[in-house]
Amino acid sequence: MNREPVSRELFDEVMVPNYAPGSVIPVKGEGSHVWDQGGKEYIDLAGGIAVTCLGHNHPGLVGALMEQAEKIWHLSNVMTNEPALRLAKTLCDLTFAERVFFANSGGEANEAAFKLARRYAWEHFGAEKNEIISFKSSFHGRTLFTVSVGGQPKYLEGFEPAPGGIHHADFNDLESVRKLISKDKTCAVVVEPIQGEGGVMPGDPEFLKGLRQLCDENDALLVFDEVQSGVGRTGHLYAYQMYGVTPDILSTAKGLGGGFPVAAMLTTEKVAKSLGIGTHGSTYGGNALACAVAQRVIDTVSQPDILKGVGARSERLRKGMMDIGERYGIFSEVRGSGLLLGCVLTEEWKGKAKEFLNAGLNEGVMVLIAGPNVVRLAPSLIIPEPDIDEALARFEAGVKTVCGK
Description:
Number of domains: 2
Number of helices: 14
Structural class: alpha/beta
Low-confidence stretches: none
EC number: 2.6.1.11
Radius of gyration: 21 Å
CATH architecture of the largest domain: 3-Layer(aba) Sandwich
CATH superfamily of the largest domain: Type I PLP-dependent aspartate aminotransferase-like (Major domain)
Distance between the termini: 50 Å
GO molecular function: identical protein binding; N2-acetyl-L-ornithine:2-oxoglutarate 5-aminotransferase activity; pyridoxal phosphate binding
Subunit structure: Homodimer.
Helix content: 25-40%
GO biological process, one term: L-arginine biosynthetic process
Shape: globular
CATH topology of the largest domain: Aspartate Aminotransferase, domain 2
Number of strands: 17
CATH class of the largest domain: Alpha Beta
Largest sheet: 7 strands, mixed
């Protein structure tokens, strides 16, 4: 089959313009390295936005995909399949969960979580108990419900009217939650233990513990959005384990499939009962291919040596970025946990995170941003230390061009 050459210009001809991708089109990946159409090599500190947790072209994931591809791809949930059941059992064994619902993306997992929270309150306390408390600067997805629960109004602009019954408190401010929560009205508090898109902002341990207590006192469910912080990203399989705060519902996606679209909502048996037959569903959720890959991801990431290695890599990367920040006066702090790090720009450089991203790309290193003031890093959990050192050197070269030094 003859195929016409593909260029960045083709995007503008055939794609809806809701993205603004750069000129680079990657065509091959191996570990933490990516090559573009012209053969230029990059070190990947972006991880597809915290998705490729085991790097590119990981032999275990490729093997799991190929093995399942030769068996059965899809059945729908009219009947179940072996990979989905095995993965659900594994997730229950490794977490607080007793029941699992599979979906295809973080937004879908959160949609299920929020629907379950309202349904549970409706069944146990009545229709008036339907309000959700979320947090400013939070991000929970792009469906109309999840973008409304999210605390960034720019993503809702032009899509109103939004679903009602949603309130936004201040992150890390327990008193602001206390002013909003109500035993009669509040069905759930939804929080990212580490805000990702909101600037890689970690939750204070006492704040998250306080949310658990407030939810218990007000018969509300505590929902942790771990789409970005989960699957080993913090050096724990899920961040709730690091904080010692157990939610009632948890959403997970991104790294769960290592690049293959898959997501899950985890919850307890008691809460899960409210999603009875016919109340919610997904045609592709629990797809055999996706679950087979995710099984290999979880089996690999949950190994103690992998999780321990995240901490060592984190310190190496954090120190390197802090050193660069000090040499050029560009970062006020490097915050986050494990391999989800946010390098916060100083006052002098505020608003210019994208410039550092582009400069790094020119030098052969891929990073992310989290808003205009934070350079975000979310590399493979098994990125080799020499790759970290080379990536830091390349990023520093980019910084020099931006700073004119």
